[in-house]
Amino acid sequence: MSSGILKRHYMQKWIRIVFITIAALAILIVGVVYFLNEDVPKEELRGDADLMADRMMSAVHIEAWDSLKLVSWTFPGDHDYLWDKERNFVEHSWGDNRILLHTKTLTGIAYENGQLMEDSLKMRKKLEKGWSHFCNDSWWLNAPVKAMDPGVERSIVETEDGERGLKVEYSSGGVTPGDIYVWILDENYLPLSYKMWVSIIPVGGLEFTWEDWKELPGGALVAQKHVSKGMTLELSNIKGGIDFEDLGVKDPFDELAQKVQEE
Q: For residue 220, which of 47, 83, 86, 216 is within the disulfide window of CB 3.0 to 4.6 Å?
């Protein structure tokens, strides 16, 4: 057999192996999704969902959270944040990137490798990516306080596990409107976990714990650890305060404040 024929033979063999491997993985993924997937609870139970949501937010001390002007934290992936809640400013760093973002207008300033980005289109894309990070990462920081946001529908439902939960559906806001969560609360209405039906995850009803609670200055509670099947998501370096000295940093937003004022 000539070398050319041998090469074609082995190439065809490897193509078959790769195809079979990909097909097997696809079948495995479909099987996992099928067996783990849980339908969104439809049947509503009797009870005041708004009162349940209010009690959940009280359990994490929403008034104390609202009184905090500044919050900083690190999200997995080395996503570092300094959030000026009072002025709606965010400093966000990841990799070689750093942005200063006004969350109300989504305008701001972006740096790459320590250099100000001059290309307005590339800067806009960098700001949009940072905004997407912030929406996700601030959600994991303190999602319970968003249960009464505008555009949120609430109901009390029973999960497939027979647990009574607070279902919240977000018809607007963030970057993935339509997401649904069912909160499981303890006897004091402090979140134990929630189940998720979100567009970016193919498995419906994936459950994450809310645990390792940390008390911030003033009394606000935030969960630092979230555990699901085979995965753990931990937030770190969480701090809160009234001024920048409380967080041990200087105000980085002078340039952004000037830009916002000019606009």
A: 216
